[in-house]
Amino acid sequence: MSGDTGTPNQGGTRYGSISSPPSPGPQQAPPGGTYLSEKIPIPDTESGAFSLRKLWAFTGPGFLMSIAFLDPGNIESDLQAGAVAGFKLLWVLLWATVLGLLCQRLAARLGVVTGKDLGEVCHLYYPKVPRTLLWLTIELAIVGSDMQEVIGTAIAFSLLSAGRIPLWGGVLITIVDTFFFLFLDNYGLRKLEAFFGFLITIMALTFGYEYVVARPAQGALLQGLFLPSCPGCGQPELLQAVGIVGAIIMPHNIYLHSSLVKSREVDRSRRADIREANMYFLIEATIALSVSFFINLFVMAVFGQAFYKQTNQAAFNICANSSLHDYATIFPRDNLTVAVDIYQGGVILGCLFGPAALYIWAVGLLAAGQSSTMTGTYAGQFVMEGFLKLRWSRFARVLLTRSCAILPTVLLAVFRDLQDLSGLNDLLNVLQSLLLPFAVLPILTFTSMPALMQEFANGLVSKIITSSIMVLVCAVNLYFVISYVPSLPHPAYFSLVALLAAAYLGLTTYLVWTCLITQGATHLAHSSHQRFLYGLPGEDHEEGRTSG
C-alpha cells in the first residue's frame, strides 16, 4: 500500500474482482427504488488534505449503522447489566463497542473496494447450500432484532399512556408506525439520514438527562470502565456480558453497513479515491459509535447507581412513597434482588426522580424502537437481494419481517405478562451473540482475499485481531450452550437442541474452513474452492462487472 498517489491505475484497473464501473454522476432513483437508488456525489478538494466538506458528504451510513447499537435490545442489556453487576461490566461495553467498530470497518471496506455488499459477495462465492443456510441465519437475526423493536416500542407506548394502552395494543400500533416510516425515504437520502440523526439526538438528550439526575459515582464508574475485572462475579454476570456482546455486535448490521456505503459515489478505478473513502467512512463510524457508546454508558451507569443490589421490597417502598405510588404493585414485596426490565426501569426512575424522568425515559425508548425499525427494514431488503437476487418492494419486505416478529410477540403480550416479554428480550440478545459467527466469519474471509480486495486486503494485524474476536465469541457461545442445556425442562428438548447444534456446528465449520483458506491455509482448498484463493472464474468476473 505504499506509493499512494492520486493518479489512476494503469489501464483503468478496477479494485475488487467483482467491482463495477464508477457512476458518471448523480443517479435518479428508479421506480420502487430504495436507499441505494440515490447516489451522493463527493466534492472535489485539494488532494491529500483532510476536508470537513468531504467528511460531511460521507456522513450518513455510519450513523444509520450505529442505530443497531442503540435498539431496545441494547437498552435492556445495559440496564440489566447495571442492575446485576453495577459498574463492573462497563469495560465489557467499551471493548464490545471497539470490537464492533473493527467489524464495521471491514464491512465498509468490502463495500467500498468491491462495489458489492456482503450478501452479494456471499452469493457469488459460497455454494448454494451453505449460502442458503447462511441467509436463513441472518434472516433469523433480523426477525429477532425486529421483535426487540416491537417489544421496546410497545412498552414505551404503555409508559407514555400511563398504562391506558395495553402491551398488546402497543404491539399492534407498531404495525401502523412501521408503514408510516416507509414513506420517509421518498423525500431524499440526505433528509432520511438527517431524520435518523434527529432520533439519535433524542436518545442522547433523554438518556443523558437520566444520567445527570441519577448522579452515578464517577470514581467507581471510571474504575469499572478502564479496569477489566469483575470481582465476585458468577454466572449471572457472565450471561450479562454475553448479552452485551450480542446486543452491541449484531450480525445483520455487518451486512447492512457493507450496503449503506454504496450510496456514495466513489471512483473505484483510482486507488487514492478508495483509500480516501475508507478513511472518511472509518472516521464517521468512529464518531457515530462513540456517540452510541456514551448513550449506552448513560443507561448502564444510571441503573448501576439506582438498581445495583436493590431488593423488590426496597423498590416497592420507593414507589409507594412517591407520586407514582400506583406503580408500586409491579414489585413483589420480598427481599429478592429486583429483576429489572425496560418497563420497571422507567417506573423506578419516575419513583426516584419524579414523573418527568419516567416520561423522558419512555420517549428515549420510543426513539430507540422507531429508529431501529427502518434500519432493520433496509437490512432485510439488502440481505434478501444480495443472497437470493430477489427484489421485493419495501412494503412486502416489511410485511414479511414485521409479521414474523409481531405474531409471537402479541401472543405473549395477550396471554402472558411483562416478565415473559422481558425474558424474550434477554433470549433474543443471546440469540444475536450465537448468530454472530455467521457475519464475522464471512466478512473476515472476503476482506482477507487478495484476489478480491487486492492491496486493500487485511494485513496481519487485522487478521489477528478479527480472528481473536471470532475465537472469543465462539468460546463464550460454547460456554452459554453448556450452561443452558442442563436447564432444559424436558428430555425431549435435548434431541431438538442436538439437531440445531449439529446444523450450527456444521455451518460454522464450513465457514471456518473457507476462512482458513483465505488466511493462508492453501492446502485446505479443493478444486471447487479455488475461487477463495484466485478469485472468481472469468465468466463470473464479467457477471460481476455488469451487474453491479
Automatic annotation (TrEMBL):
It catalyses: Fe(2+)(in) + H(+)(out) = Fe(2+)(out) + H(+)(in); Zn(2+)(in) + H(+)(out) = Zn(2+)(out) + H(+)(in); Mn(2+)(in) + H(+)(out) = Mn(2+)(out) + H(+)(in). InterPro entries: NRAMP_fam. One of its GO terms (molecular function) is metal cation:proton antiporter activity. Residues 1-38 are annotated as: Disordered. It is found in: Late endosome membrane; Lysosome membrane. The chain crosses the membrane at residues 81-102, 133-159, 165-184, 196-218, 238-256, 277-303, 342-368, 395-414, 434-452, 464-486, 492-513. It holds the Pfam family Nramp. It is a multi-pass membrane protein. It comes from the Eukaryota. Residues 1-12 have a biased composition (Polar residues). One of its GO terms (cellular component) is phagocytic vesicle membrane. Its main location: membrane. Keywords: Endosome, Glycoprotein, Ion transport, Iron, Iron transport, Lysosome, Membrane, Transmembrane, Transmembrane helix, Transport. Macrophage-specific antiporter that fluxes metal ions in either direction against a proton gradient. Localized to late endosomal lysosomal membranes, delivers bivalent cations from the cytosol into these acidic compartments where they may directly affect antimicrobial activity. Involved in iron metabolism and host natural resistance to infection with intracellular parasites. Belongs to the NRAMP family. This is Natural resistance-associated macrophage protein 1. It comes from Capra hircus.
